[in-house]
């Protein structure tokens, strides 16, 4: 029964070779336009490191039969990724949470709760421009439900580590590193990966019955040895999938595993779906006035600490803050989840954006502490409020309070409104740059704060003055100055021809 599958309409058998050939053909077509944001631009890139959906695949945690509560790297591809190990405490900052439970062996092996109770979250490392997203799925595992690619044990060896009167459990985490913000795709894939493991374990039901009956156990040829090899081959094919075009589908159809199918969404910008999901977690935990208070502090580069006991909420809100200030980029450190080993960072003088699921006993007064569980903001220093507060609150006051799910259209309106306000602020930077091109071989451009402030009403200038002195604005203006100098050089060269 499981060796045959009725072909589903619209789903083609998976072929990595065919997908790669289609990808190369698309690269040969000139003028391919797939979007205007940073992620979809990479689809048109010839660079080897941007050809694929996935940069790396990891599994973190510990083995249930071990004693350590510290998370470590259990599997990595590519194996030459020497930075993989340092990410373990960020994925499981509170350790692997060991537990001993009484259970039924058969139901434990086929328990759907491993997937149903798993937690998906996204870590964001903006300093890693090649692949800033680390998509993670946290789940519980016992000796028989540990992913088979994490070890080389046989069925008998695994059964020796089980105990129905005291089954050991601990947390593990699958993590996928990528440049592309397709959170729905990666969440679906990682859950599919765990489903494949569960389907494979169904092949050894007779052996489990023999074990419970104290009968002789015969080594099963399929699980875990053959399954480990089959699933690893499937994983390798997945890791080398080229980025599909909008509305194209990715399909993996390999018996006996369930079908995996996903279609790339057609959105204005590729990060919009994940952005509105992240902003929803911010909006549902802060009222509109506190939301604007946090946005105001963010634009002035205040150090911000986000707390909530739920990993997904914390990571989503950290990511939301980065999306809200586009086209600016936060230039200081940003940590989605703070491991206990790095708590000394809270005493650092530089601005940080940090998320935590652990209680913080004390922070400096300069920090803006956002307690999402209590829906409150605490700070020792007063937050200077952005002067467009009334405009924003009047626009969204009613619809903001009516947001009750991540599909609400108001979320994209909030994102675009915040981005529009930032664009208004940075739009005046270019017109505040004066260029000296008296020497065509040494064209120099300089930003003048006095000119910049004149673009705003008197009551807004204090905020804009502090804003324009932030590091992210200073770096932005440096880029604008170089661009304006280059434009003047090109104009001068054209005039002299």
Automatic annotation (TrEMBL):
Residues 57-487 form the UDENN domain. InterPro entries: cDENN_dom, DENN_C, DENN_domain_containing_2, Tripartite_DENN. It comes from the Eukaryota. Pfam families: DENN. PROSITE patterns: DENN. Transmembrane segments: none annotated. PANTHER family: DENN DOMAIN-CONTAINING PROTEIN 2 (PTHR15288), UDENN DOMAIN-CONTAINING PROTEIN (PTHR15288:SF0). This is UDENN domain-containing protein.
């Amino acid at each position: 029964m499981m060796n045959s599958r009725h072909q589903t309409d619209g789903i083609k058998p998976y072929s990595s070779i065919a997908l790669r050939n289609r990808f190369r053909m698309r690269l040969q077509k000139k003028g391919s336009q797939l979007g205007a944001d940073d992620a979809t631009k990479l689809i048109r890139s010839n660079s080897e490191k941007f050809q694929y959906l996935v940069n790396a695949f990891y599994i973190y945690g510990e083995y249930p039969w071990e004693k350590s509560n510290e998370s470590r790297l259990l599997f990595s591809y590519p194996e030459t990724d020497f930075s993989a190990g340092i990410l373990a405490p960020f994925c499981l900052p509170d350790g692997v949470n060991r537990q001993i439970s009484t259970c039924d062996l058969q139901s434990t092996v086929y328990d759907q709760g491993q997937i149903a109770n798993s937690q998906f979250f996204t870590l964001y490392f903006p300093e890693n421009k090649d692949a800033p997203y680390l998509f993670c799925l946290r789940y519980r595992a016992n000796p028989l439900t540990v992913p088979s690619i994490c070890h080389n044990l046989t069925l008998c060896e695994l059964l020796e580590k089980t105990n129905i009167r005291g089954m050991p459990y601990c947390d593990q985490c699958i993590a996928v590193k990528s440049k592309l913000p397709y959170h729905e795709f990666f969440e679906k894939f990682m859950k599919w990966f765990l489903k494949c493991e569960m389907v494979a374990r169904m092949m050894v039901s007779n052996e489990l019955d023999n074990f419970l009956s104290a009968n002789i156990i015969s080594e099963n040829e399929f699980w875990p040895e053959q399954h480990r090899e089959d699933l690893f081959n499937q994983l390798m094919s997945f890791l080398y999938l080229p980025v599909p075009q909008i509305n194209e589908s990715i399909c993996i159809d390999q018996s006996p595993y369930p079908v995996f199918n996903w279609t790339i969404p057609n959105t204005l910008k590729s990060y919009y779906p994940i952005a509105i999901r992240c902003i929803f977690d911010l909006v549902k935990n802060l009222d509109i006035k506190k939301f604007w208070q946090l946005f105001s502090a963010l634009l002035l580069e205040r150090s911000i600490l986000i707390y909530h006991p739920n990993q997904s909420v914390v990571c989503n809100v950290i990511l939301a803050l980065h999306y809200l200030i586009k086209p600016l980029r936060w230039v200081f450190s940003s940590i989605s989840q703070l491991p206990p080993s790095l708590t000394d960072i809270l005493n650092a003088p530089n601005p940080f954006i940090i998320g935590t699921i652990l209680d913080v006993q004390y922070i400096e007064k300069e920090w803006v502490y956002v307690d999402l569980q209590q829906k409150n903001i605490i700070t020792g220093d007063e937050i200077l409020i952005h002067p467009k507060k009334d405009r924003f609150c009047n626009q969204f006051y009613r619809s903001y309070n009516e947001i009750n799910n991540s599909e609400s259209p108001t979320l994209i309106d909030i994102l675009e409104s915040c981005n529009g306000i930032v664009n208004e602020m940075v739009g005046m930077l270019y017109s505040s740059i004066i260029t000296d091109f008296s020497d065509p071989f040494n064209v120099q451009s300089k930003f003048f704060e006095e000119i910049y402030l004149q673009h705003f009403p008197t009551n807004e200038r204090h905020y804009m003055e502090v804003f324009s002195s932030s590091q992210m604005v200073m770096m932005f203006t440096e880029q604008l100055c170089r661009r304006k100098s280059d434009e003047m050089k090109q104009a001068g060269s054209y005039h002299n021809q």
